[in-house]
Amino acid sequence: MLTTQQYHLMYEAGVFSDDDRLELINGEIKTMSPIGKKHVACIIRLVKLFEKKLGDRFMVSPQNSIRLNNHAEPQPDIAILKWRDDFYTEALPTSDDILLIIEVADSTTVYDREVKAPLYATNGIPEMWLFDLNKKAIEGYSQPSANGYKQINRYDEGDTLSMLAFPDVTFIWKELF
To answer: Is residue 112 a contact partner of residue 141, using CB atoms and an 8 Å limit?
Structure first.
């Protein structure tokens, strides 16, 4: 089982190329799926929408690493982070910094639901949204515990949702897709 330190040493030693799409999940290096055009469009739309609606109250970190524990450094599609003046120069965001994780899936829905969601929950990430591009549905996960998220909601066309951290800001399903 690899540690995040070993993972970084491998990168620094040139074991991986800059083009490799990798993440460390539960001590194992996982190759991430290629990103298709629907996936890219969804992420661009979400980043723009979150920045517009929430302004400078937070930071949007698209497809960047976060450090959850000594054996996990995933790259969620979007992490909504607490504001830090250093823009996380000194260290990767950790569970304490993360307000919301967003995973966008067209071919990785099961993996995101069965592997990544429990990983986020056991590390105390307060909320995760899973965008299923094929079903055009959003699953909202909250109330993290050692056994996964206790609360799961499904949002479809016509529904409205908001982040736990900013309940005053609402998102309409239509604008998210």
So the answer is: no
Q: Which of 57, 79, 60, 58 is nearest to 68 (CA)?
A: 79
Residue in 155, 128, 126 with CA at minimum distance from that of residue 143: 126
Q: What is the 3-state secondary structure (H, E, C) of 78-133?
A: EEEECCCCCCCCCCCCCHHHEEEEEEEECCCHHHHHHHHHHHHHHCCCCEEEEEEC
Q: Are strands 148-155 and 160-162 parallel, antiparallel or unpaired?
A: unpaired
Sign of CA dihedral 106, 162, 67, 84: positive
pTM over 0.85: yes
Q: 159: closest CA among 176, 142, 135?
A: 176
The predicted-structure confidence for 33-70, as pLDDT tens digits, reads as follows: 888 899 999 999 999 999 999 888 899 999 999 999 99
Residue 19 identity (one-letter amino acid)? D
Asked if 105 and 78 touch (Cβ cutoff 8 Å), the reply is no
* H/E element, 54: helix 37-54
Provide the 10 A C-beta neighbour count for residue 43: 18
Helix or strand (DSSP H, E) at 28: strand 28-31
Rounded CA-CA distance 149/55 in Å is 28
